[in-house]
Structure formats: C-alpha cells, structure tokens
Design goal:
The chain is α/β, with parallel strands linked by helices. Helix content is about 45%, strand content about 15%. It has helices spanning about 15-25, 35-45, 60-70, 85-95, 110-135, 150-160, 180-190, 205-215, 230-235, 250-260, 290-295, 300-305, 320-335, 345-350, 360-375, 380-385, 405-420, 425-430, 435-445; strands at about 5-10, 30-35, 50-55, 75-80, 100-105, 170, 195-200, 215, 230, 240-245, 265, 275, 280-285, 310, 340-345, 380. Strand 3, helix 3 (about 60-70) and strand 4 (about 75-80) form a beta-alpha-beta unit.
C-alpha cells in the first residue's frame, strides 16, 4: 500500500525537502511542517500514518510532537531523527512510544527500510483495531439471533435493565439461552469492564458451593493449606450470575440472602467480614413464586432476586426465528474454510414443524447433525430425516392431530417427484439431490414400487 501519509517535521528547509523528496519518490504522500507546533496543528486536522521528526527544534521539539501524535492517533508510528544522538534521548524516545531513533547522517536505504517497517506496523495496528470493533459489534444484544416480536421485545428489555444496577431474575425453559441474556446484560452495563462470574447452582454439593462462593481461610478444613478467595470476592465490581438458582439448598439460600443484604461475606473458617460489591443476575427454569409457596425457596431471597424480571421465550414461541437460527448454527459449525450449506424452502418448513423441547440448545445439535448428513450446497428434506433421533416420537405443536412423521413426509415427497417425472429415476435423483442407489433404497424401504422395475 503506497497511499500512506507521512508527516515530515524539521526546522531546516534542506533536510525537510530532502526527506519529502525521498518519501514522494517511494510513492507516499508527504506532508511537511516547519516546526513542532505546525506539526501538531496538522495532526489535529488529519490522520497521519507515520511521522519523521527532528528532535531538536525551537518551541515544540520532537518529543512534544511524539507525545501529541500518540495522543491523537494511537496507531501512528513516529521515527525520531537527530544529529545529537545520545543513549538517554534514544531511551526516552522509545519509552514514549517512538518506533525508531535514527542519527544524522543516515543512509537513505536504511531510512527507507525503517519507513517501510514502520508503516507495516501502523497498518497492523489499524487492522487489530478494526477486528476489535467487529468483535464488539458481536457483543451485546446483537448476539441474540432472531427477528420475531418476542426477540425484539427481549432485546429492548435487555437494553433497559442493563443500565439499571439492580438484581434481575431471568426466567425461561432449559436451553433458551438464559446465560447469554445474562452475559449480554453485563456487557452492556457500566460494570462491563469487570468480571462476569457464572455459577451453576445445580452442579455443586452444599459443602463445595460454600467454599467456592465464599472462599476459605487456611486450616478451615483438611486440605485447606492456604487462603482462597471465593467467586464472590473475585467478582468485585462485576456481575455474578447464579444459573438455576432454584437448586440452592435452603441453608445456602440463607447464606446468600445475608450476603445480598449486608454486602459482606465470611470465608469458610473466617471471622472477619469482607465487603463485596457486585451485581446479581439469577436464572431459573422453575416457577420460583410457586416454589416459595411450597416452602422450597425462601420468599425473602426471591424478592431480593426478583427486583426486575426478564422472561426468555421458548423456541416454540418464536418459530419464525428457526430458519435464521439454523443458518447461524450451520455457519458456526461448518468445517473451517467451507461455506455452510443453505436450507431449501421445504427443509426450512420441516425444521419449523418440530417442537424443540430442548429449545435453542437442541436446534444447535440438530444443525450439527445436518452437517454430517449433507455434504452438498443445499440442505434438502432427506438430509433432515432422522436428525431428531426417534422421529416417531417427534413432538409437533399443531392444531391437527395425527400429524405425519418426517419419514411419511419424505415418502410422500418422493412419490410426488416420481409422479412428476413419470417414473424417470435419472430426473428424480436430480430433483431430490441424491444418487440412484439412495433413491433405490428409499423406494424399496417405503414400498413405493418394485425396485427392479
């Protein structure tokens, strides 16, 4: 890339003109400044890729130019040139972020090599910045895939509660993406610069979760050879996410309630109160209100957690998002370097027939199985048959009873194609997207006609 801007700063006209000539000859755009102040004014008005600045100048010197350039344009590179070289000034320039320090007189080829490498580094910095911006756009509610009204309402709710530093209860069926919602709230909140600590309350024993949450002092129990900070301490300033909070035992609920009320905790085996500051997000697939009525969950903890509630819709409540989600997971899991196959309209329709009791998590598994069964560019109905496991046991949410299985759909589809092409199997396999042997097997399997005919 030769369309790069290089600012030359020198109070000696001959030196300045010589550098400008070298830069222009190599195909770069040369901007010139007679002193440090003029250089800074140029830097304030336009983006420069590289600065070649003399060190000693009246008024603003090369170090001042270096400081201001780095302040205005973090990706910029600066080469300091001087006739008064010393180890101290070289070290100081490099410490302030100079790319290189070169003494007069210098060899032109040496300068050209430095310019080329400095511009390469500048370009790399810009690419890294661009990639970070792309990653940032994937954060927040944009990561929640879907365009249905339910999902649009969910995004709006997330954006609103993320700015409120209060506890939030996230409710939804298993596999609906409650942790993604929690992470999104954290990423959009003022606490995003601190840690997000996720704790699955259903996988710990009571003794283990106490030491994991609160930490322990040395000698608190056998094997406690040193002090250990708990997850709640480590989340200082950030967000703690209690997944499946309804699984906590009543005794652990008491301990958690105390932390939320007092904003202090005691390590296991400790006597000193430790102040903590974190936001609490909790998720459950249970009806906690009903759990409190039955005595399985403390009502005082429930009301502490349920300051605001977000309900995550099941996949069956937003079936129009299934094709978009399916494409998303196909692209996510396709082999590196390959393009994800697209869903045919009929394949999309059939994916939308299934009820997905495992919600988004199950749809992602289905997408991975489809990739195994389809090695072409288009996913057809035959690639979907069987990906749900026991297709006879499929749960279909439809008003009609005795809805046909996927196998019955496939049988009917093959019959229609064969009828359309008047039994011409060569034409049929092209439409179906399978080979002749596969078609022969399906005809035999479904008893559509004599396979030897």
């Amino acid at each position: 890339m030769k369309d790069r801007k290089i600012l030359i700063v020198d109070d000696e006209p001959i030196a300045r003109d010589n550098l400008a000539h070298i830069v222009a000859k190599d195909g770069y755009t040369a901007r010139v400044a007679e002193d440090g102040q003029q250089a800074i004014e140029i830097l304030k008005k336009e983006e420069i890729d590289l600065v070649l600045t003399d060190l000693r100048m009246k008024g603003k010197d090369g170090m001042a130019v270096l400081d201001e350039a780095k302040n205005l344009w973090p990706a910029i590179e600066v080469v300091v040139i001087t006739g008064y070289a010393s180890v101290d000034t070289a070290v100081e320039a490099m410490r302030k972020g100079a790319y290189h320090y070169i003494s007069k007189p210098f060899k032109i080829n040496e300068l050209r090599a430095i310019i080329e490498k400095a511009l390469e580094k500048n370009l790399l910095r810009k690419e890294i910045h661009s990639l970070r911006e792309q990653v940032d756009t994937q954060k927040g509610s944009l990561r929640i895939v879907g365009q249905s009204r339910k999902i649009q309402a969910l995004r709006e709710a997330i954006n609103q509660v993320s700015q409120l530093d209060c506890n939030v209860l996230i409710q939804g069926e298993t596999g609906t993406g409650k942790e993604l919602v929690a992470r999104t709230i954290h990423e959009l909140s003022p606490r995003s610069g601190k840690r997000f600590v996720a704790i699955n309350c259903g996988v710990f024993t009571e003794e283990l979760i106490a030491s994991e949450l609160f930490g322990y002092e040395r000698g608190a129990f056998t094997g406690a050879s040193k002090v250990k900070k708990g997850l709640l301490e480590k989340a200082e300033g950030g967000t703690v996410f209690f997944d499946e909070v309804g699984e906590l035992s009543l005794s652990m609920q008491v301990k958690l309630l105390r932390v939320l009320q007092e904003r202090t905790l005691l390590r296991v085996g400790g006597t000193d109160e430790i102040a903590v500051d974190f936001r609490v997000l909790a998720a459950t697939n249970k009806d906690l209100k009903r759990e409190t009525e039955g005595g399985a969950f403390r009502s005082d903890l429930y009301y502490r957690l349920d300051v605001l509630t977000i309900n995550v819709p099941s996949l069956s409540e937003r079936k129009e998002d299934i094709p978009l989600l399916a494409h998303h997971f196909l692209a996510k899991h396709v082999h590196l370097g390959k393009t994800a196959p697209r869903l045919s309209p009929e394949a999309e329709r059939r994916l939308m027939l299934y009820d997905y009791p495992g919600n988004i998590r199950e749809l992602e598994n289905v997408a991975q199985r489809i990739l195994v069964s389809c090695d072409g560019d288009v996913i057809e109905p035959q690639h979907i048959a069987g990906v749900f496991g026991d297709t006879e046991g499929m749960i279909i949410r439809d008003q009609r009873e005795n809805w046909p299985s996927l196998e019955e759909h496939e049988k009917q589809y093959i019959l229609e194609v064969l009828d359309e092409v008047e039994g011409n199997r060569s034409a049929a396999v092209k439409i179906l997207g399978i080979d002749r042997v596969s078609l022969w097997r399906k005809i035999k399997r479904y008893g559509l006609e004599n396979p030897d005919a």
